[in-house]
Design goal:
The complex is a heterodimer of chains A (79) and B (289).
Chain A: E1 3-6, H1 14-25, E2 31-36, H2 40-51, E3 55-61, E4 66-71
Parallel strand pairs in A: 1-2
Antiparallel strand pairs in A: 2-4, 3-4
Chain B: H1 3-8, E1 11-13, E2 19-25, H2 33-46, E3 52-53, E4 59-65, H3 69-78, E5 82-83, E6 94-95, H4 109-120, E7 132-135, E8 149-159, H5 171-175, E9 181-183, E10 189-191, H6 201-205, E11 211-222, E12 234-240, H7 242-259, H8 266-273, H9 275-282
Parallel strand pairs in B: 6-7, 7-8
Antiparallel strand pairs in B: 1-2, 2-4, 2-5, 3-4, 8-11, 9-10, 11-12
Classes of the chains: A alpha+beta (79), B alpha+beta (289).
Chain lengths: 79, 289
């Protein structure tokens, strides 16, 4: 199942908080696609997700902002 | 009491002959709420009910009468505050919040400020005033280059891919404020160190940690000053640890005392000896910078 979260227009740090909540809903090892604005959002959100232990698989510039693919990582089952 | 003795103790003569400004040291600009309450109480009791915030992050209480000096000092001591230095002395170490609070901070400025203060404050026999400023990163908010001795937190980035971590997202190149990073044909970052400002933004943004810190520490500037003839501090050494920074501080002051004539700031001493020979006086070999 593909998970998608559009965080364009959501300001820092709410975009990160929303990404975190979304990641809580999905399984370890699953992927989440996030759309982010250019500027503060792209500078902060990927880093914060990285620091939470998740894996950033892809960052792509889109027509408006960026597309991120994140793999949910955690302590369970070695993911 | 002589004017000189007063200044040593942090009391500065005002235009109004019977009044003095009480200069209180607030190291790195951090005061507890208890200290602030005491300062407010003192300003009401012995001043005119207001304070002035100084450029070296201290608090000054104007309109204090000489007969209240002793009580004021004793009251301030109760909350861990002391008088700030004036005249030819090591002045209060100024520091930004650094890595303890600021998202850009690379160095622990507060800790270095405390260590340097403990090591060099109160050294006697200086030719003139001696200012130390610490900034946590190259944003240089506390302007370390304006001080006789300045420290700035820096990071040397390295692209160090072990097993294909780099996802060629290009965020490092986008985020670098000095344009020091370009992407090669295979989408990997190439760092031009001659343009790198050592602010560590690429390290912090890299989503896969393919760019990491190769070195981290304090960049040192010497001979900065303001006043009538402003001069920016000269680059002196790079990537020092706290302990090395303390040694440099002590040795620079020793050399300043040894070589400086009365009323000469460190910049004038360096200009007459030359930067390279001043480095030798401090015991810095070419290799360590």
């Amino acid at each position: 199942m593909k998970h998608l979260l559009d965080l364009r227009g959501v300001i820092c740090p709410m975009n990160f908080v929303k990404a975190k909540l979304k990641l809580e809903e999905i399984q370890y090892g699953e992927e989440l696609e996030i759309w982010l604005d250019d500027g503060e959002a792209i500078k902060n959100v990927p880093r914060s997700l990285r620091d939470e232990g998740h894996e950033i698989l892809k960052v792509e510039r889109g027509v408006s902002g960026f597309k991120l693919i994140i793999k949910k990582r955690g302590e369970i089952n070695g993911y | 009491m002589e004017e000189k003795t007063l200044k040593e103790g942090g009391f500065i003569k005002q235009r109004q002959a019977e009044f003095f400004v009480a200069r209180i040291k607030v190291l790195a600009g951090d005061a507890t709420s208890e200290q602030l309450r005491k300062l407010a109480e003192m300003a009401e009791k012995y001043g005119e009910g207001w304070v002035h915030l100084s450029v070296r992050q201290g608090v000054e209480i104007p309109f204090v009468k000489i007969e209240n000096f002793d009580t004021l000092v004793k009251e301030l001591e109760k909350v861990g505050l002391s008088m700030g230095p004036c005249g030819p002395r090591v002045r209060v170490v100024v520091a930004c919040p650094g890595s303890s609070i600021c998202p850009y901070g690379l160095g622990n400025t507060k800790e270095l400020a405390r260590k340097i203060d403990a090591r060099i404050t109160g050294i006697k026999g200086l030719p003139h005033k001696f200012k130390v400023g610490i900034a946590g990163c190259p944003n240089a908010c506390t302007k370390p280059q304006e001080n006789d001795l300045g420290f700035m937190g820096v990071v040397r980035p390295i692209f160090d891919e072990v097993e294909g971590e780099c996802i060629s997202c290009g965020l490092c190149a986008e985020t670098c404020p000095t344009g020091a990073i370009t992407l090669s044909e295979n989408g990997r970052p190439v760092i031009d160190y001659s343009k790198c400002s050592s602010d560590g933004r690429c390290v912090s943004i890299c989503p896969t940690r393919a760019i990491r810190e190769e070195r981290k520490g304090w960049r040192v500037f010497v001979g900065g000053k303001f006043g009538r003839y402003p001069q920016l501090g000269l680059f002196f050494a790079d990537y020092l640890t706290d302990e090395e920074a303390l040694i440099i501080a002590e040795k620079v002051i020793e050399a300043y005392k040894r070589l400086g004539k009365k009323k000469e700031r460190l910049r004038e001493v360096i200009e007459s000896t030359g930067l390279e020979s001043f480095k030798r006086e401090v015991g810095l070999s070419e290799a360590s910078s």
